[in-house]
């Protein structure tokens, strides 16, 4: 895809090398059985390779984009992919059960966007002991896997912090407090984003206090209420950083309801139709956009490599892009803001 040359921090050559390796793997497996190579894109059939993809939540368009990437990889390389997800990112027990179900079905590989850095460790360990190759995406876990694909959230958070500083500096408002509106406590990717945001903000806006933080349990209404309360309690609140799409939608709603968009900048993570609309109408000033399509597509390829006995890259960072009013209609940025998406199945 053309946009990969623009937005991925991993070298394009390395990505092509991984795709080429998987192409060789699936073609070799298909022709090794003595039959003709079959499958999507003329690459060959993976000869029964079965990969399960478990996202963080089925109630989020962000994760449906990852599903679209996984299913397109399946079509392109003839890999058998099934996709699953708990109803919410807070349903960790449900996600553990989904991992256990994959092991019981005897799949060859698993692509997992874990809802906890540690709570799924035992299930992951059991999967690998059963011969299932595990690739984690988006959030790291604290046990061994075959590889990780995800944004360097500290670095991406720092991009958000720097943009917030730019917005505050342009308004000559660099002394005071901002609110960090977060989704769920204890999620490593979010913790890293928040830490990176504070680092990036402090580089040139050291007098901005970013210690105030609220957790909305991944609920838009709660996020909107928390931001509304913060705006009411402190009429001089400088800005809001929202560290995922749910938080971003809630923050935008509260800022709009308080007619504060012209004085309280909002910098948020990710994209979905509601966030994109808020970016267009000015209730969100900037979005730090990841590439969940890449998580799904490349995750399936990496799992297929591992299942075939090859060694996938240990760590791939597709990077993040800051989208705003100036660049949101550019083709490479628009492709990230409006990627393909589809519902999960089972």
Describe the protein:
A six-stranded parallel sheet has the order 2-1-3-4-5-11, sandwiched between helices. A six-stranded mixed sheet has the order 7-6-8-9-10-12, sandwiched between helices. The two termini are 28 Å apart. Helix content is 47%, strand content 16%. The chain folds into two domains: 2-150 and 291-319, Rossmann fold; 153-289, Rossmann fold, CATH 3.40.50. The chain has 346 residues and is α/β, with parallel strands linked by helices. Residues 51-310 form the Periplasmic binding protein domain. One of its GO terms (molecular function) is carbohydrate binding. One of its GO terms (cellular component) is outer membrane-bounded periplasmic space. It is found in: Cell envelope. Belongs to the bacterial solute-binding protein 2 family.
- N/C terminus separation: 28 Å
Radius of gyration, in angstroms, nearest whole number: 21 Å
The amount of helix comes to 40-55%
The side-by-side strand order for the widest beta sheet comes to 2-1-3-4-5-11
Structure class: alpha/beta
CATH class of the largest domain: Alpha Beta
Give the helix tally: 12
Number of domains: 2
The fraction of residues in strands falls at 15-25%
Shape category: elongated
CATH topology of the largest domain: Rossmann fold
Overall mean confidence score, pLDDT: 87
CATH superfamily of the largest domain: Response regulator
Examine the secondary-structure arrangement and name the CATH architecture of the largest domain. Answer: 3-Layer(aba) Sandwich
Tally the beta strands: 12
Report the uncertain regions.
Answer: 1-17, 23-45
Largest sheet: 6 strands, parallel
Order of helices and strands: HHEHEHEHEEHEHEHEHEHEHEEH
């Amino acid at each position: 895809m053309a946009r990969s040359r623009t937005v991925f921090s991993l070298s394009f050559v390395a990505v092509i090398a991984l795709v080429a390796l998987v192409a060789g793997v699936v073609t070799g497996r298909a022709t090794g059985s003595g039959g003709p190579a079959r499958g999507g894109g003329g690459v060959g059939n993976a000869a029964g390779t079965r990969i399960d993809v478990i996202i963080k939540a089925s109630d989020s368009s962000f994760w449906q984009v990852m599903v679209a990437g996984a299913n397109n990889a399946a079509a392109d390389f003839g890999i058998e992919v099934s996709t699953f997800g708990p109803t919410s990112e807070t349903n960790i027990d449900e996600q553990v059960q989904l991992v256990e179900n994959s092991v019981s079905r005897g799949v060859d590989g698993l692509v997992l966007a874990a809802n906890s850095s540690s709570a799924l460790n035992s299930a992951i360990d059991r999967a690998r002991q059963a011969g299932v190759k595990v690739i984690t995406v988006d959030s790291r876990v604290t046990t061994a896997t075959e590889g990780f694909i995800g944004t360097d959230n500290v670095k991406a958070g720092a991009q958000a912090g720097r943009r917030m500083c730019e917005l505050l500096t342009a308004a000559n408002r660099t002394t005071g407090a901002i609110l960090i509106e977060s989704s769920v406590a204890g999620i490593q990717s979010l913790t890293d984003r928040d830490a990176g945001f504070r680092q990036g903000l402090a580089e040139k806006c050291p007098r901005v206090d970013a210690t105030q933080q609220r957790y909305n349990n991944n609920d838009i209404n709660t996020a909107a209420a928390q931001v509304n309360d913060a705006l009411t309690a402190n009429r001089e609140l400088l800005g809001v950083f929202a560290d995922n799409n749910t938080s971003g939608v809630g923050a935008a709603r509260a800022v709009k309801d308080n007619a504060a968009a012209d004085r309280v900048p909002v910098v948020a993570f990710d994209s979905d139709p509601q966030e994109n609309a808020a970016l267009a109408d000015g209730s969100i000033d900037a979005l730090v956009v990841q590439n969940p399509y890449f998580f799904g597509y490349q995750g399936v390829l990496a799992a297929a490599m591992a299942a075939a006995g090859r060694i996938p890259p240990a760590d791939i960072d597709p990077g993040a892009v800051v989208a705003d009013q100036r660049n949101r209609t550019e083709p490479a940025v628009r492709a990230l803001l409006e990627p393909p998406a589809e519902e999960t199945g089972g």
